[in-house]
Amino acid sequence: MLKSLSLFYGESATSIYRDKHIVGYRGNEAICWQFVCERQKYWLQYIAQMPVPAVAVQQSSGIEFVAALLATWQLGKIAVVPGSTRRSQLNSILGENAMSKVHDCENFVAPALSLTPITNQNATHSPADLALIIYTSGSSGAPQACDKTFIQLDAELLILEQCWGDTVADSLFLSSVSRHHMYGLPFSLLWPLCRGNAFVDKSLPYMESIDQLPSPSFTLITSPVQLANLPPALDWRYLAQHCAAVFSAGAPLDEAAAKDSLEKFGLQVNEIYGSTETGAIAQRQQLLSPAWQCLPETEMRIDPTSRQIEINSVAAGTTDTNWLALSDKAEEVGPQQFMLKGRSDQIVKVGAKRVSLSHINALLASHPLVREARTVILNERKSRIGAVLCLTPDGNRLLTDQGRNATNKMLSHHLGDELESIARPRYWRYLSSMPSNTQGKVPRKLLEELFYSEHQPRLPELVSSSLDSDGQEASFTIFVPHQLRYFNGHFPGNAVLPGVVQLSWVLHFAQQTFQKLGIFQRLEVIKFQQVIRPGDTVRLKLRWDPHKYYLQFVFDTDSESTHSSGRIGFKPHDE
């Protein structure tokens, strides 16, 4: 039976489950309810010392995230859930003073600034009703703060239970998406918590680890990006026998990925359509029907003029007289059923003319050598259009053999007379994959930065760091930005991080960490074993020997996946 969230942060929360009730798994170690309650008490004491109404909660561990959320709510405070671990966004949530004390961007609980979230214009809830502030993906602009009440969260969980409660049964929930957005949070943490299912503590870094589960039956919360790249070398026959359900959200699933998922998991993917503001709205199993069907307790209508979808539901925080208009356009094809027809917020002004980026995207994607296409208006380049494309294998061969200019001309010619001259892309970028976030969405800012070399970073984003007690071993978890300057031309359509850049990053972090490296002399036993690509999160391990003046380094993903390694020799300055 599904339990209300309010039970979990009340005075009797410890009696909801038996002490030995399994809440989650860390590897093969079962984490019981008693441990969660102990962690909740810890966070209660920690957060109680913060004289602020809102607390930023970011934890890579699902167990710690849940415990910190429950403690925050028990104290009557609002939980602010950052949508990104990038310091630029965290700084706007925490402020410079609090941010200076955060050393691990993936794991912290800290006082939050006063924020002004997006709310329904006619909403009647008070600040005391608020459960959390969570962020939009930023795919159509800068990420925006959005508030959620306990009533909204409970309403969404009730819908999930009504639709799929019997399907997920007693399966183990595992997630390959971030739990810090309005898909991963309710689907992969709050829903199993409230219905008594166990969940895997950490999000899956790679689909390859899906077969290393402590439970035979599982429910997978994932995204189109990950379903489009399912690894072939798994025991899919075994996994298909034990998969209870697969959910995907963030964007429509490609038909080929839907067919591959059906073949591998043995069941249809449940695609979820929704937004941060509304929560889950509709679902489909596209190989049965391409139309979206509204979820229970959710009403949909289409504005006859704008063709935009309007939603009314408790989960969206609307009222009978105050529907919420979305940016997506649609066509109604049956009772509470619709087909998506692009986005209204993709209309931009180029010169004095209105241009639909969605239309340009569709035209480019219709070329047989184009796998995916996105366009963006470049305000710093006289508001011209930039196109970002992922090509098919044949397209990448053409790009390699004939070059960028010939490929640009081919695609521009393909647009034919469909577009006016001013609406044609003037700038082109070719990637192996779109720069998506953990929701599988493509933030506009990342697309823009691909076209401005002066804005493109030269260093990775530091996620976390640690230094051992003797000050000679350090570890850094880093994220490799899609728009990194060194990916330009290396290689078009199939970018990899150059080895020389990896060495420069080794020196950068070593110089910041260790006192005196001395004068560079030589490289030794350098090995480049696996490529590092845009969007990868990798670990850099450094060991400094102050006696031999050796710096050893390893870039890896885990103990079995080494990207590169080697040793750098130095000599003292006084020699």
From TrEMBL:
Signal peptide: none
Protein origin, superkingdom: Bacteria
A Pfam family: ApeI-like
Domain ApeI dehydratase-like, residue spans: 469-567
AMP-dependent synthetase/ligase domain location: 120-283
Family: Belongs to the ATP-dependent AMP-binding enzyme family.
Protein name: Acyl-CoA synthetase family protein
Organism: Zhongshania borealis
